[in-house]
Amino acid sequence: MRALRTLGAALTLCAAAWLTAAAPAAADGKDGTDGTDGKSGTEAPTEAGTGFRTATEIKPGQQATAAASTGDYLYWVFPAAAGQIPEVEAELKLPDASSRHGSATWQLDVYDGLRRHQPCASGTPARRAAQQDRTVTVSCTLRQVRSWSERWANDPLQGAYYVRLTVVDLPAQDLGLPIDAEVEASVRDAGGSHADGGDMTPLNPVLRAGTAPGTDSEPPDDDTASDSADDKGGEVPHAVAEPEDGWGSGWWSDRWVWTVIGAALAALAGVGGYTLTRGPRSPGRPPIRPGSDI
C-alpha cells in the first residue's frame, strides 16, 4: 500500500508540473500575431514595393493585396524569429482570357535579410497558368529558422524575409495587362524537437534614409544613415519591426513535456525497483540489524 501511495503522489506531482508549464504556452498564442484569431489587428497593406529597399512590410497573418501590371516585380517583407517555419502563399487574379495571348509562368521567391535566396522545403513556388485560367496560386514553405549557422551554410536565420512575386515566362503581347495579387505570410513553431542553441544578431537590414522612391536624389549609404539616426537620438529604421515575442523562440518548448514524462518514468522505476529489491518481511518481527546477535 505504501508503494501505491508513493506512486500516486509521484504521478500527481508530475501532472501538476506539466500543467503549470503548458499553461503559459497556450496563452502565448505563438503564431507570430496577437494570439487571438491568427490575424494582426492592423489594416492590411494594399500595395507592394518594386524592390528590396521599397518592399512593403506585412505582419504574419495579414493578407496583403496589390493591383499591378503583368511583368512588374512585387516585393513584401515580414519578420520570422528563431524556431519558426515561415510559409508564404500568393494568389493572382489574371485578366480575362480574351485579352491574353497564351499561358504564363508565375514565380514566388523568398530571400532572407542578406538577400540570399532561400529554397522552399515544400509548396509550389512556380506554376504555369493556361490562357483560360482566371487565377493561379503559388506557395513556399521554408525550412525552420535557426538562431545561428555556420558561415558557409545557407540556413535561414532570424530577421527579415523578402517575398518577390513576378511572371517569368509569357507572351510579349501580355506585358502590362492588369492583375490583382493577394499575399499572406504566416509562421508556425517548429517545436522543441527541432530547437537549437546559439544567438546572433537578426538579419534585419537598415533602411536607407533619403527622399521617397522615384525621385532623382540619391540616398546615402547604410552606414551614414545609421550614424545620422544615432546622432539624433532616434531609432534606426529597419526593414521590419521586431516581433512582440522577440527574435528568440522563447522559454517554452515541448521538450518540457518530454522532460516531465521522463521524470515520471524515472520515479516509477525507482519505486518499482525499491519494492522488488526490499523483499517480503515477516510481520511482527523487527528487522535484523548489522552486528547484532541472532
Number of helices: 3
Please, what is the oligomeric state? Answer: single chain
Helix content: 10-25%
Order of helices and strands: HEEEEEEEEEHH
* Major pleated sheet: 5 strands, mixed
Structural class call reads alpha+beta
Low-confidence stretches: 21-38, 210-232
Radius of gyration: 29 Å
What general outline do the C-alpha atoms trace?
A: elongated
Q: How many beta-strand runs?
A: 9
Mean pLDDT, to the nearest integer, reads 76
Instruction: Tell me the fraction of residues in β-strands, as a range.
Output: 15-25%
> Could you tell me how far the N terminus lies from the C terminus, measured between alpha carbons in angstroms?
30 Å
Give the spatial strand order of the biggest sheet: 1-3-8-5-6
List the helices and strands and how they pair.
Elements (H helix, E strand, L loop, with lengths): L1 H27 L27 E2 L5 E7 L4 E7 L3 E10 L10 E8 L14 E4 L5 E7 L17 E11 L8 E12 L32 H10 L23 H24 L16
Parallel strand pairs: 1-3
Antiparallel strand pairs: 2-9, 3-8, 4-7, 4-9, 5-6, 5-8
Helix pairs in contact: 1-3
